[in-house]
Amino acid sequence: MSETPLPLPAAPVTITVRPNGPLRVEGHIILKDVDGKEWDLTGKPAISLCRCGLSEKRPFCDGSHGRQGWQCNVMAPGENLG
Ligand code: FES
């Protein structure tokens, strides 16, 4: 079974790995659960997705990473293109 390709967004979505924190996602975002049901992101130009697993509001970050001292700082390999 082939899936219908998604239309290309007008601008690319940018995902930034925050030091010791969430994934910051900016752009035209469609966020779905495993059943295909979407979160209402109306009016949100960006969201932060939990990367630590400690949030009470997953998949969104609620700041628990900072309160609990979670640490994970990763950098892209090679030259910084940003
Ligand atoms: S990354 Fe912020 S609560 Fe998990």
TrEMBL record:
Keyword Iron-sulfur: yes
Superkingdom of the source species: Bacteria
GO cellular component, one term: cytoplasm
GO molecular function, one term: metal ion binding
Residue ranges of domain Iron-binding zinc finger CDGSH type in the record: 32-71
UniProt-listed InterPro entries: FeS-contain_CDGSH-typ, MitoNEET_CISD
Keywords: 2Fe-2S, Iron, Iron-sulfur, Metal-binding
Record has Signal as a keyword: no
Name of the protein: Zn-finger domain of CDGSH type-containing protein
